[in-house]
Amino acid sequence: MTTYKDAGVDVQATDALVNDISSLSKSTKRKGSVDSIGGFGGIFDLKQCGYKDPLLVSGTDGIGTKILLGIEINKLDGLGYDLVGMCLNDILCHGADPLFFLDYYASSKVDKTSFLQIIKSITEACKQNDCSLIGGETAEMPGMYTGSDYDLAGFCVGIVEKSEIIDGKSPRQGDVLIGIASSGPHSNGYSLIRKIIEVSQTDIRSELVGKVLLSEALLAPTKIYVKSILSLIKNPHVNVHALAHITGGGLLENIPRVLPENTKAIIDPLSWDEPPIFDWLRKKGNVDPYEMYRTFNCGIGMIVCVPATMAKISIDILSSSGENAFIIGEITRAEDGEEKVILKGL
Fold this sequence. Notes:
This protein is α+β, with helices and mostly antiparallel strands. It has eleven helices and 14 strands. It has a six-stranded mixed beta sheet with strand order 10-12-7-13-11-14. A four-stranded mixed beta sheet has the order 3-6-4-5, with helices on one face. A two-stranded antiparallel sheet has the order 1-2. Strand 1 and strand 2 form a beta hairpin. Helix 3 packs parallel to helix 4.
């Protein structure tokens, strides 16, 4: 008699693993959380959040082929943090306070050790940002995945008052763009990164970039901006016109997503210090400057658009939240057909 286990799927082992993580998910409880791990859906009580006219903002993302580097050198602790960060940073661009998160983990066969490492980093990222992990899915799919390969996806929901939504329609000529430093490439451009490593025949375990190993620089967890950005948004002396999360597509593709018609952003690449990893990628891969800014965040993980008169107080607030923030550009009028992002000096 043929069983599901014979086909490579051990349902009992996976169920036991889900029970193991229930205590981890409970540690992320916030106002509105309802214990529901193990059911068919995650439950959240919106009434407890205290909003008058709320809008829900949702987002979903993965971390791409950064997973393969983590598996290669068995450094998994930051991958769950990456997953939460990529989702939370996106909904944050609309001014949303994250409420809850769900994860999806798929592999040929669930390895308990690596799975728990990732789940622990997901729960830690959720706890640090007052976001409840209310559910997820763990799938074994031999034939779809091989060996130790697996994939991750995340889904989050946040909340914002309708009167306070940031929709990208407010930027205007004369506004200042404030860049907030990233922790590295975050979770974007890793197919190109892996190609550069392959072509240059670099051992990421021994190569130094600045004062750290290349492996450490490449697997640095995605920086999550929730606390610092929410403190800025909620400050009565600041009017945030737009926020741009610099993800896949880099500066050149993400800034235009929050620019009204007939405006453009002029960015000065010399206004911030790039982390050494980006110079390493540029030189080792012989990557064209525009390709760099179209692929990577190049040291800027989030951009805040505010009136010029509010630039100093905005930077002060962000700095007091532990961010490294600086003016990197401005919004000006754009003529028909003109590029939406101009990089000075390139």
